[in-house]
Design goal:
The chain is built from eight helices and no strands. By secondary structure, it is an all-alpha fold.
Length: 174
């Protein structure tokens, strides 16, 4: 019986020693948590920028589409992202290939933390729209933020690199 107790105590002691000396695994790097509103305001809206020398084409809008866009803007201001998404979805039923409306819908998807959809819509808007100017920068900034939110920093860096390519210096007016 003494031998049994000795072996049990030794076994327990070795088990506890093994547990206490196990090497610690390095912590997995965490992607900082950023609120969707911060992603939109800090990165996407700021990327559009304003340069008096840069050409920015503003197409004529269908009045119904313009009303829906304004309703979406008001819904965003009230933090009612579902209503904003619905208004822009209605606008897209009227003008499915409008890059500005697609971009606005992408930004609402970003606010809703629907990051894959945000990226898809921003890519489509870029494909259909101008490859330069403020809207182009917003497309790529949305793609960048969607990728960051999904934990894809290398892919986000490649999107960030595209933002600078959207800027073309305008004419110097004397």
């Amino acid at each position: 019986m003494n031998k049994f107790l000795f072996l049990a105590a030794l076994s327990l002691s070795l088990s506890l020693t093994a547990c206490s000396t196990a090497p610690e695994l390095p912590a997995r790097p965490q992607v900082p948590k950023v609120a969707p509103e911060q992603r939109l305001s800090a990165a996407v809206a700021a990327s559009a920028g304003a340069d008096d020398r840069e050409l920015a084409v503003q197409p004529l809008r269908d009045p119904q589409v313009q009303d829906l866009r304004e309703a979406a803007t008001a819904a965003i201001a009230a933090h009612n992202y579902a209503a904003a998404a619905e208004a822009l979805n209605q606008a897209l039923l009227i003008v499915a290939d409008d890059p500005a409306v697609l971009q606005e819908r992408a930004e609402v998807a970003l606010l809703q933390a629907d990051n894959e959809r945000a990226e898809t819509l921003a890519k489509r808007a870029f494909d259909l729209g101008s490859k330069v100017g403020p809207l182009c920068r917003r497309h790529w900034a949305t793609i960048e933020q969607a990728r960051l939110a999904r934990g894809l920093p290398q892919d986000a860096a490649s999107a960030h690199a595209q933002i600078e390519g959207c800027t073309v210096a305008g004419l110097n007016r004397m």
